Amino acid sequence: xxxxxxxxxxxxxxxxxxxxxxxxxxxSTAWRTVNVAFDLPARARMALICGRDESKVAGAAxxxxxxxxxxxxxxxxxxDDIDIVDVCTPGDxxxxxxxxxxxxxxHVLCEKPLANSVDEARAMVxxxxxxxAEGIRSMCGFNYRRVPAVAxxxxxxxxxxxxxxxxVRAVYLxxxxxxxxxxxxxxxxxxxxxxxxxxxxxxxxxxxxxxVTGQKITGVSALTETFxxxxxxxxxxSGLAASSxxxxxxxxxxxxxxxxxxxxxxRLDGGAIATYEASRFAIGRKNGLRVEINGSLGTLVxxxxxxxxxxxxxxxxxxxxxxxxxxxxxxxxxxxxxxxxPPGHIIGYEHSFxxxxxxxxxAIANGTDPAPSFVDALQVQLVLDAxxxxxxxxxxxxxxxxxxxxxxx
Amino acid sequence: xxxxxxxxxxxxxxxxxxxxxxxxxxxSTAWRTVNVAFDLPARARMALICGRDESKVAGAAxxxxxxxxxxxxxxxxxxDDIDIVDVCTPGDxxxxxxxxxxxxxxHVLCEKPLANSVDEARAMVxxxxxxxAEGIRSMCGFNYRRVPAVAxxxxxxxxxxxxxxxxVRAVYLxxxxxxxxxxxxxxxxxxxxxxxxxxxxxxxxxxxxxxVTGQKITGVSALTETFxxxxxxxxxxSGLAASSxxxxxxxxxxxxxxxxxxxxxxRLDGGAIATYEASRFAIGRKNGLRVEINGSLGTLVxxxxxxxxxxxxxxxxxxxxxxxxxxxxxxxxxxxxxxxxPPGHIIGYEHSFxxxxxxxxxAIANGTDPAPSFVDALQVQLVLDAxxxxxxxxxxxxxxxxxxxxxxx
Amino acid sequence: xxxxxxxxxxxxxxxxxxxxxxxxxxxSTAWRTVNVAFDLPARARMALICGRDESKVAGAAxxxxxxxxxxxxxxxxxxDDIDIVDVCTPGDxxxxxxxxxxxxxxHVLCEKPLANSVDEARAMVxxxxxxxAEGIRSMCGFNYRRVPAVAxxxxxxxxxxxxxxxxVRAVYLxxxxxxxxxxxxxxxxxxxxxxxxxxxxxxxxxxxxxxVTGQKITGVSALTETFxxxxxxxxxxSGLAASSxxxxxxxxxxxxxxxxxxxxxxRLDGGAIATYEASRFAIGRKNGLRVEINGSLGTLVxxxxxxxxxxxxxxxxxxxxxxxxxxxxxxxxxxxxxxxxPPGHIIGYEHSFxxxxxxxxxAIANGTDPAPSFVDALQVQLVLDAxxxxxxxxxxxxxxxxxxxxxxx
Amino acid sequence: xxxxxxxxxxxxxxxxxxxxxxxxxxxSTAWRTVNVAFDLPARARMALICGRDESKVAGAAxxxxxxxxxxxxxxxxxxDDIDIVDVCTPGDxxxxxxxxxxxxxxHVLCEKPLANSVDEARAMVxxxxxxxAEGIRSMCGFNYRRVPAVAxxxxxxxxxxxxxxxxVRAVYLxxxxxxxxxxxxxxxxxxxxxxxxxxxxxxxxxxxxxxVTGQKITGVSALTETFxxxxxxxxxxSGLAASSxxxxxxxxxxxxxxxxxxxxxxRLDGGAIATYEASRFAIGRKNGLRVEINGSLGTLVxxxxxxxxxxxxxxxxxxxxxxxxxxxxxxxxxxxxxxxxPPGHIIGYEHSFxxxxxxxxxAIANGTDPAPSFVDALQVQLVLDAxxxxxxxxxxxxxxxxxxxxxxx
Lengths: 409, 409, 409, 409
What we know:
The structure is a homotetramer.
Chain A: H1 3-10, E1 12-18, H2 22-37, E2 43-50, H3 54-64, E3 68-70, H4 73-78, E4 84-87, H5 94-103, E5 107-111, H6 118-132, E6 138-141, H7 148-158, E7 165-173, H8 190-193, H9 197-213, E8 217-225, E9 230-232, E10 234-238, E11 241-244, E12 253-255, E13 261-268, E14 273-279, E15 288-295, E16 298-303, E17 309-314, E18 324-328, H10 351-366, H11 374-392, E19 398-399, H12 403-408
Parallel strand pairs in A: 1-2, 1-4, 2-3, 4-5, 5-6, 7-14
Antiparallel strand pairs in A: 7-15, 8-13, 8-19, 9-12, 10-11, 13-14, 15-16, 16-17, 17-18
Helix pairs in contact in A: 2-10, 5-6, 6-11, 7-9, 9-11
Domain Gfo/Idh/MocA-like oxidoreductase N-terminal (chains A, B, C, D): 13-132
Domain GFO/IDH/MocA-like oxidoreductase (chains A, B, C, D): 151-300
Keywords (chains A, B, C, D): Oxidoreductase
């Protein structure tokens, strides 16, 4: 009897989550809320949380509301009473955990970016494909697809409302490492994080723009920069917050091995041309993901710091009345919003994860494949890889390798 | 042994909530989240929910996560194992339930407006005062005080940053009954709701502006209007959503007995002059609470539809650099925000309730009186009363009765 | 032979302007530009400027581009070769100059407010009516009617696009006298200015809202305040800029005899209810005229500090696409804009005067009556008068006297 | 006797302008206004306008206020009574006219881009250098430097307020040729215009960002696109407006030989990295020049459609009060603004030209070299050239040739 059919019998899907830092907290909020906010065909249960530090993970379990905890992700992956494995660790362990979980017949939700390298991502795609044949589902956690305004963009574009897409203009700007004394946390180390702004936040705008436009990036020309090349070693760090060691002596320092910022031009397979920029040095921009899409008939603009709003310029209106229409995406007929409050009562960042869990649970219960699939996530990885290669080779134009052929191989 | 000391022993406060519609859902979300988001001296437990319809309240209990349910609020109020009674019913039953709960030694959180009349509010204040002598806490649920940007406004004003307050400009605009076919729900009936836009949303801007300025309204000149005087009777209604009956015949209609909009001028006891407007006919404004405070040294602007932002004009800056500074209220040193996400990751409407529950739980655990007290809420009621009397008497200037003298009496 | 027919013969209208301060400079810019920007049936010629101080008015004539100057307004009014008298003096001399000019057969453009009192305004209306019988035109200079976005509001409302008007919400906020050391310029003296914020900027929002809605204010309830009651006497002042005397001794001070702020509620004859506020103490608001009109079908919002934009919420759009549409009013099919630059190239404050002169010249040349007429301006004066009386009498509801009956009398 | 000393004697500078379309109209407005708005050491006189079509240029002279007209630019350049030659023609004639004017001892103001090719620009620089030795001034008309908010950006950056510059982010977006039926006007023909969006609007953001940052672009990686490759031939065209021929037959069409959009990444010589985008296909963006500069200490944002505003994020403020400060650039202590209206009374697009003329006249009268010089403009041309070469060669990284070495050579 497959895990899936069991969970459908008793209408409960038991989740085991690996990791309890920033993403772990966000996912926990979502797992706790999803059954309440939505009428789901199966109920998610926060069964087991895993982390390396016993006392910390015990505290996280109590605080975040998990039934039990463990320090051994292999135990979590193999336990019979776990249906879903939710991977919230840094990128360097995604592949190992996800592949083991899939092999153990668990549905897998893996945080983005899918992996730290294309090779790892390919291995994960292969594992997912094999598991899929037995009804096991896998999904990568690009949560911004589930922001209602973003889902609405996709609907408007898919229905032809802005016509043929000409321009994509996407930035994801933050400023949390502008201070040169900010310590060398794992996100600034290539072996842990794979890359810097590029994979952390650049991956989001790659996925988001491809998702809403329905077009794939085919080639890029890229430039990356590390403005602060050496930083104090952290005394301890977790999530996005950290402090540098404060002994009597000057703190030991280490090399920053990832990019602070990544910029690239791109062509998309539907004929659009694009600019992308990811930076952690754009002072004042806290979570500044901003996307503008210009089509032959209209324009859409989204800003994550005002995620309840969508701007739509519609050239179908009379000339004298055309303008940027600020739509407050809080109506019951907007994507996901019937679950929440009356119009004008806004939602926050964390709701995107709740929507993600809803879609994942529904796909599992309904026996369909959720999106973004591991193949979709591999394709993002291939774009990241092309960007990194272009930047390494003096901004040379670099084609993005096709993801699907890899799967076929 | 008082309820309070018992709850402090076992560190659990058992909540019984009456009502399960819009406010019931919002409060449930907050009770479910407050223990996770904050490190509280006592843990809130969602023990019991009460509603009149057995099957509906059973469904609500399951859906919203309450341990048990009942259809008898008197049972809830009197049960030994309930520490907090949370009153989320329409205004016409606030007084009866709250007074009974206080008499039974329960801490009471009562939704705003406190009551449908000044007399009821006075009785509640008297009951709260009597209970307070035995360590029982009471609070009225003006949740917008707990929006971080609003709390920040109060801090800036209290620390003198905008100087002597000259002007208060407050509107709360909605549009959900613009359609004349929208049915005659309880919020449009004076016997249930007490008043219309005035008590429902006008009460919020009265409390909010008095809270942030630290000034009380002393007199008003008011004008109210009911634009649509007759509406179809509802087939069934709950919360803010409703549909009119759709039999083969024209639906029966009824008289709208509350205001659609209320406007008033006011003077505050610190010398400020003010305009207030509450309306359900401001098309396009969904939850449009907007407040601007002009002081002798600066200005603050808040808009609930963008509740993560606060605008601050500071005349202490050099002339050529003065401007409206849009502060994104998502930093860890902003009120309540250390509990949530990294900077720039916004929160939503529901978080104001989570903050409210935190403050209430902390006050109970710490043995302090939470605000807004029932006296504070009575004072808002007295303003509402003055507004209604002014409007009834041809917009004549009407002094607001003092709330404290009433308590003393 | 009437002045009018003469001017049509030689296609030139010779303007004599009285006053050369702020409004004088603005009108000069407009007279200098109007022939270039528009194809007019007659050419305006800047013939003569008048001021009391010989050397200053000579300098103004040279600087602003007037052919000649005089210190005697009576000479200007009576000269045969003047077709238009443009009255830009403080309000206390409007009536005398305008009536004399009309009697002398000159077309008269008079700055707002029309006069400092209703009696003066009535006399001016009578003079205008008499002159009109002989083809002499008169107009009051409410220049904001000529802001393209404002003209567009009127068109949209007149064509029914926002339905039945429910709410008018108008503020005109400035902050130039917040500093208590700002001197006692003429605008702060009742005998010169008639009133303070009320007549200076309140008059604008009264006229503007009545113009765009097509409704008249029928009654008001008002409250005024003078926050700073005594100020240093000015050493010298002109326009809006001034400095207080700076002798070795403390400057002599004088009483502020006008309102710093005026607030009022109103009813309009089409059923709308309204709030109005004019203040010179709203720190940070430099020229903050903001108007919002809510109708049964839509909302319009205008902000003078962003005068090239108009926000339009149109409930005719599908629910999920309704929003506040920011229309950039720079298209050739927007009012007045064909005269200017390509789309997106914005215009400024002064253009409103150029448009005003265009409309006035066209009316004269075409033999039609321009608007706002002196009757329209008297009606604004009657609203100002009702506001002042209401404020004087404890905010009592005060009906606005009808203007037309006065004319008939 | 040099022209310059003559003009200083009689305090009049006689201007001859070549071209009377869009830029001709804008420059005429500025020449007409500059003497009035500013107290200049010499008075500009609109002496002579030149255009190829006799009747049209005669009409333009009358309409725009020029003393005389001619159809022969050589006559204009050589006339003794002309001090300044203002070149407003399409780019293909800039070099010939400007060089002839400089040779004839005239001060030259040349519209941007300086030329259609680097070779022409070099020849112009050489001519300007030679003329400079005799006190003849030359300037290129990048008018957006004279927008007060832009000048203010430069001041803030120069005084270190935003620290070390990390990022430049510049777009100039328009949409006037989105319609494939828009005809093939001169701006879409390479032989007339040199390039498309790149030289027309891309040149503006190159100059503006280099000006405000004080850094030069050293290398680029670029991508250009022509979305609509064939268009109807125009029946007649002028400025930005045009109509396609409307004979009974389908209109003849022609090849679009310029770019519709140009995107590029860049490095600046102070260490900043940058993205640039110029497009005429960004629907809804009418004159959408938007620039954001992130430094180590702050951020500045400018948007030409709201040119009276500047956003400044200043990390020197306390953390909890940091935000994007919207400064209304209308105070007397803002650049150029003392000439205009009281605070909050905004200016428009055309004022940038008036400021340009002021700076040019002052430089001539004071005997100093105005900026941007022809060398500055050549450097912009070299960036444009590098962009075009990069795009032609598959987005290869392309170094910008140094301009100064060219001058030295």
